[in-house]
């Protein structure tokens, strides 16, 4: 009988006595996604969480999701066996739409004609627009830490043309010069300091 009395007494208390206080609403950081090559995903001694892509997100207070693979490009499949468009499809397209998508590259497309590069970039941008019509998209041209070869300018111009035709912003890192300490001994990829410089530049452009 005592158990019954105690149970009735507990159930008789006002419901507000056990109501949990609502948790304070937390403001979620905007999401920025990247598709890119080894500059974006990391190479050599620089891991993915220290690349310019990750550091740009940290500078802006955003949440990064990074896709792509070394050696890839708008046309070039690299060892991964996929282009930027395929990386977008298999790594990003199934996710909820981000606040910002950055497509960065072209360094590995210098063996392809500018016409092919422009067509591939336009195809990717068209698919992104159809899939995420409300997502802001920014295209970053080929990254060269040293003096770019002549063919790199043709690739850069082709990517820029595709971006303009797709009505998205184009940012050109080839207009910047980088100090020697920003380049790894391979003469191609950025050191940690180089990634920091790229991140500061990109964050300022995006802001």
From TrEMBL:
<dbReference type="Pfam" id="PF13472">
    <property type="entry name" value="Lipase_GDSL_2"/>
</dbReference>
<dbReference type="InterPro" id="IPR013830">
    <property type="entry name" value="SGNH_hydro"/>
</dbReference>
<feature type="signal peptide">
    <location>
        <begin position="1"/>
        <end position="19"/>
    </location>
</feature>
<dbReference type="InterPro" id="IPR036514">
    <property type="entry name" value="SGNH_hydro_sf"/>
</dbReference>
<protein>
    <submittedName>
        <fullName>Lysophospholipase L1-like esterase</fullName>
    </submittedName>
</protein>
<keyword id="KW-0732">Signal</keyword>
<feature type="domain" description="SGNH hydrolase-type esterase">
    <location>
        <begin position="34"/>
        <end position="196"/>
    </location>
</feature>
């Amino acid at each position: 009988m005592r158990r019954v009395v105690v149970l009735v007494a507990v159930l008789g208390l006002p419901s507000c006595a056990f109501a949990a206080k609502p948790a304070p609403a937390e403001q979620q950081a905007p999401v920025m996604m990247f598709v890119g090559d080894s500059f974006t995903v990391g190479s050599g001694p620089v891991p993915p969480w220290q690349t310019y892509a990750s550091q740009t997100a940290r500078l802006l207070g955003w949440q990064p999701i990074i896709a792509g693979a070394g050696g890839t490009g708008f046309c070039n499949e690299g060892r991964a066996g996929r282009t930027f468009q395929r990386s977008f499809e298999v790594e990003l397209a199934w996710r909820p739409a981000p606040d910002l998508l950055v497509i960065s590259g072209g360094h590995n497309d210098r063996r392809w004609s500018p016409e092919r590069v422009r067509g591939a970039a336009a195809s990717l941008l068209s698919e992104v627009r159809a899939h995420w019509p409300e997502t802001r998209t920014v295209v970053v041209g080929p990254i060269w830490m040293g003096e770019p070869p002549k063919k790199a300018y043709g690739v850069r111009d082709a990517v820029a043309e595709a971006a303009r035709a797709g009505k998205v912003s184009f940012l050109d890192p080839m207009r910047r010069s980088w100090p020697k300490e920003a380049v790894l001994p391979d003469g191609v990829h950025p050191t940690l300091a180089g990634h920091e410089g790229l991140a500061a530049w990109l964050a300022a452009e995006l802001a």
